[in-house]
Amino acid sequence: MRAALIALFVRDLRLARRRAGESLLVVAFFVLALTLFPLGVGTSPDILARIGTGVIWVLALLAVLLGLERLFQPDLEDGSLEQLLLSPAPLELLVAVRCLVHWLGTGLVLALASPLLAILTHLPNEALWALPLSLLIGTPSLTLIGAIGAALLAGSGKGSVLAALLVLPLEIPVLIFGLNAAEALIMGLDARAALLFLGAFFLGSLALAPFAVAAALRLALE
Amino acid sequence: MHTYANPHRLARIFDAIYPWALAGVLALTPIGLWMALIAAPPDYQQGEAVRIMYVHVPSAWMALFTYLVVAGGSAAALIWRHPMAEIVARAAAPIGALFTGLALITGSLWGKPMWGTYWVWDARLTSVLILFFLYLGYMALHEAFDDPDRGARAAAILALVGVVNLPIIKFSVDWWNTLHQPASVFRLDGPTIHPSMLWPLLTMAIVFKLYFICVLVLRVRLELAERRLRAVERG
């Protein structure tokens, strides 16, 4: 079983490396969408510093949702999803591995890119590590919960808009606690409670989401 | 349990319940409205605006209860492939969305005079708004597939995932400091609401529950008829 999981991990990683451009596109969306805000609300550093944390977190959430269509759709089309289903390893674990690799190409990259956005929005220096930290703990939950929507609509031909609408309400708590954590860290307040909540969301979604995703994938392949 | 997988038997039971539920709605609605709008005393703090509560609270209770029906039906449909549970879940969802919308609207109408604003982003209001979107997502997912069976089962999975929201709604007023007042009826140490307000509230709650049963029966009948029509057209 372990061999199957490692094989999937290596294969997905190799595919992700060949398609590194997709990760760059996610970052490009992240940065480009941010530049709309100074144009929209004005370039005053005060305003940008006040809304910066929230805007960056919301954009990260949207960027994760945008990338979700690639999570299962290509495998469904070329038939490798059926091979996964036939594998002796439980589909739930395979799903978790798939989400992990997908997160490496989206959530992790977004977290690493977030200091740049913090500078662009005149956030205080603490944000340079507070934002990546909160995104590192928060974005895995976004990917796991989002995977449910991606799996439910895999093969429906409805695209990712409906998938995003389905999971967006469920991702709101992650956004709330991620923002609480980031803002408390930036202000130098006690961020432990928010960080613990964020971690709890991650562990909870890691424990539960793969089952929903696997059920939805089995349905898609019937 | 599979005794009720037969559509005819389900239809017979529903036919038997329906007249009683309808009679209950017709008889109790004027009584409940009279108790709530005329007989009940105005609140010493909220004045006459407290009467919105007699619609708001039963709507909110039914919003949660209906989601339990949808999720329970979805679970039975997924686990046992129970066809009638699926029909009941599907038929209940729009009613639940209606109750949730009603709770949100009456709540914000009450909030304007009491809190000075139609909407605050606190935990209770936000989690009920999420519930509303979950209902809409459930209904949209049902329609997203050409194969109605696949849509039904995908929606059932989503309904089960959404169950995590229910405890958050129920306990949001205890876990967070919110503007929304904590529970005053279902408490371990008994209700803290005065009987002169509790009785109209409970009457209205019964009216809402019976109304739910009536509309559910009608929607299930419609769904059964539609399926029969599809089967005839196909065959």
Descriptive account of the structure:
The complex is a heterodimer of chains A (222) and B (235). Chain A contains ten helices and no strands. Chain A has 222 residues and is mostly helical. Chain A has one domain (2-220). In chain A, helix 9 (159-187) runs antiparallel to helix 10 (192-220). The two termini of chain A are 24 Å apart. Chain B has one domain: Four Helix Bundle (Hemerythrin (Met), subunit A). Helices cover 77% and strands 0% of the residues of chain B. The longest helix of chain B is centred in the last third of the chain and has 40 residues, at 195-234. The mean pLDDT of chain B is 87. Classes of the chains: A mainly alpha (222), B mainly alpha (235).
Count of individual beta strands of chain A: 0
> How would you sum up the major sheet of chain B?
none
Question: Kindly state the mean pLDDT of chain B as a whole number?
Answer: 87
Number of helices of chain B: 7
Major beta sheet summary of chain A: none
Structural class of chain A: mainly alpha
Distance between the termini of chain B: 29 Å
Strand coverage percent of chain A: under 5%
**Beta-strand residue percentage of chain B:** under 5%
* DSSP helix fraction of chain A: over 70%
So, CATH architecture of chain B?
A: Up-down Bundle
Largest interface: A-B, 19 and 22 residues
DSSP strand tally of chain B:
0
Structural class of chain B: mainly alpha
- CATH topology of chain B, by name, is Four Helix Bundle (Hemerythrin (Met), subunit A)
Unreliable segments of chain A (pLDDT under 50, ≥5 consecutive)? none
Oligomer: heterodimer
Estimate nothing, just give the exact number of structural domains of chain A. Answer: 1
Unreliable residue stretches of chain B:
none
Radius of gyration of chain A: 18 Å
H/E topology pattern of chain A: HHHHHHHHHH
